[in-house]
Amino acid sequence: MTQRTNPCHPESVRVAASHQAVARQIARELAAIAATGMVLPGSITTRRTRCGRDNCACHADPPRLHGPYWQWTRKIAARTVCRWLSPAQREDYQAWIDNDRRLRDLLGQLEELGAAAFDADPRWQREPAPARQRNRQTST
Ligand SMILES: [Zn+2]
Where in the sequence is the domain holding 30, given as residue range(s)? Predict the structure, then answer.
């Protein structure tokens, strides 16, 4: 990671060494998870069901429901997509889902680092917010 300074604005925010150390740690874990390729969005829920046969134990009192069965669920756009999983699939894909959760958690930590650096920018002390932002040319 490089520290960038803008020659037009020499006081550009610098990333603190401690901040970079944490970011590098996050990056290592992100990369390790990504490299496995085992990342799956959604969640797995356990289902126990009743069947249609009236004399089955699942309708007794107390009922003995069928299952457990496992269902993978994911929201795509406004639709919920579900697939039934075999016990072996459930075993395998739970780890993929855990990886997806960890990736999101790590990205959240990175964003928190950025937000903390943004809040700690000493220029907030000196420069009152202008009534109207002047157009600044951004060079790349
Ligand atoms: Zn039944």
Answer: 17-119
